[in-house]
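re: that chain from earlier
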Amino acid sequence: MSTCVNPAAYGSPLSSKVALFDAVATKHIQSQAINPFSNDNKPGSLPKPKISKEEYGRPAKGSLSEARGFKASQQVSKEMLELCDIIHQQGEPLFSPEEKPNDPRVVISFGELFSIYTVISNKLVGVLLRARKHKLLDFEGECLFQRRDDHVPVILLKPIEEIREMLRDKMEDAAESQKSSEEDNQSDGSN
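^ sequence. v structure.
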């Protein structure tokens, strides 16, 4: 039996099957009425969407796009954490303890980082740009290129413990948002 057929309606009288079909058809007609790509609508007949500032540019609540966004956010945070861990482990302190005691900054050259990180992932420059946007690290220039920028220092700006805590919180927030969105979607579908 198909998964789109309600098993409770199977074996029921014909009237309940017709009612089920009518309900599905009505729901489809309603969704097509607001679909701008539907062949049934003329450009002026569509209702103007009401989108708040918080919703603008965001996927619809409970949609697959929203779920993919939460998953991507978790993955990016995980990759940034992995990159910062590598810089912390393989880099050198920016200043010696005599010059600046308690300075958490660690530095590594882009060339050295590239040779280490390419074994792990081929997205080093993208992850570097994302980590710089989150103010976890810094480097000179807009974008770094292999060979040309091998000498450019990449500086980890915060202590690794603070970075780990911040990114783990971000991953947990994304997981909780995804879970609550799925629960909202299930409760909406059950009504």
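The mean pLDDT is 83.
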